[in-house]
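#lab-general

N.A. 3:47 PM
ok so I finally got the sequence cleaned up, no stray characters, all 105 residues accounted for. can someone with queue access submit it? mine expired

B.Y. 3:52 PM
send it over

N.A. 3:53 PM
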Amino acid sequence: MKTLTSSLALALLLLTNAVNAANVPVNIAHPINGSVVTNYFHSSFTTTCAGGNYNVDWYLDNTILGSAAFYDSESVDFDFKAPTGWHVLTVVSTCGKDSVKFYVQ
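B.Y. 4:20 PM
back already:
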């Protein structure tokens, strides 16, 4: 019985962590942090905030690439040509922020 209780507690903890990870305000799906990409790289991110009007800006190496106004959530996909080297993609939403560092070959 003790093993069953411990297993259920562990399963609940893992499920709670997975749900919390899925509900972050900004989630950059591509490029993956630390990845190597070609000079035309694909980016994909989402931002979700509690009901209301919000704004999101996205930057490559502190240079703004785009912005949008949204209600509740916004999903963005784009391709961009970047020079060879390390780069940082940053997404800043009214309710959160995320960054990834990647290498363009």
